[in-house]
Write a structure and sequence with these properties.
Two copies of one chain form a homodimer. Chain A is α/β, with parallel strands linked by helices and 211 residues long. Chain A has a single domain, classed as Rossmann fold, CATH 3.40.50. Chain A contains seven helices and eleven strands. A six-stranded mixed beta sheet of chain A has the order 3-1-6-7-11-10. In chain A, strands 2-4-5 form a three-stranded mixed beta sheet. The first copy, chain A, has a two-stranded parallel ribbon with strand order 8-9. In chain A, a hairpin with a 2-residue loop joins strand 10 and strand 11. In chain A, helix 6 crosses helix 7. The first copy, chain A, is globular.
Amino acid sequence: MSLTLGAILYEGFELLDMFGPLEMFTAIPPDKLQVVMVAEAKGPVAAGSMTMAPGLPKVVADFDFSDAPALDIILLPGGVGTVPELENEKLLSFLRERAAKAQITASVCTGSALLARAGLLDGKRATSNKQFFSLATSQSQKVDWVERARWVDDGQFVTSSGVSAGTDMALAIIARLFGQETADQTAEAAEYTWHRDADEDPFADQLNRMA
Amino acid sequence: MSLTLGAILYEGFELLDMFGPLEMFTAIPPDKLQVVMVAEAKGPVAAGSMTMAPGLPKVVADFDFSDAPALDIILLPGGVGTVPELENEKLLSFLRERAAKAQITASVCTGSALLARAGLLDGKRATSNKQFFSLATSQSQKVDWVERARWVDDGQFVTSSGVSAGTDMALAIIARLFGQETADQTAEAAEYTWHRDADEDPFADQLNRMA
């Protein structure tokens, strides 16, 4: 009974938002967890960065919104591409439909702005990127936005702070699903010093610095 | 006068070896640094993991060994794909040819095994992944292999320990090329707690645990 994690690609996603968590999730054997790459359309999807550099890495989506398998876990990155996607009803609809059936929907960085726009975080606790925190909070007043948190675990929805925080959140999700020892071994094999405390936020003082 | 960084893809490269450093390097404005994705053949290249999971992310190479532009910086990841690539004379030749002209050739994790196999590290100080350290050391006796290091900076060649260590090394390279303030801002924007001390190695006790 393998779980399936769907990693959602869109133009301008942030590289480490996606691949910090996927480094950890792909260390779980495929008889326990399989990762699939999903986007609105199959094929290469270009990452983005604040500098709008050309030629950023393109990652291939193997599934689109119509043929993605059932997803037990959804991983939604942030990035400069978040802003245009706030108006992408196809993505928001896909997230609403699939999050309702998923065990865990996890966002990194500004990915929580998309979940909030979709209405999925209403009545829940959540966090987001520190330097652009208001991008998330402006999407819904009905979310209990947590300013100081490395990540926030509200059960079915888990949201992390900016970029690197997603890796710490991913290890916490691995601990919940597969046990603490598996999470510890996964971090060690990647020579990763895991921030284990969700409430300890070294970057809280950057709140809205760039907003 | 923008510098060009060539990120080298091969089948079975480790995701975070590549995208931890690229998260940091792509934060540098393109008028100072441009990133190009290079592989033996153009097109999608699949990542690998120790679990040999199917369907791992595929990243697109925009250039091959024959048409890659002049490279000022070379970024070489490790991963399970390192072992077959040790026999790939086309890759080793490309590395020899391009490293000779590059300002910095940087490897992550088992990537240093490939540099050692190519003879590029002879007479130099270098390090590698801790759990598979002997994979690197067995490639050349003429390298001064450093067992305890987050990364080792030998000027033209910079090598890091396993996976996550590459991100710390990348920030040190950014500091060298673009200044400490730029490196600090890059780490902060990614909400990344940078291990700044190259000699402090939290994972040295894992030496050859999996070899």
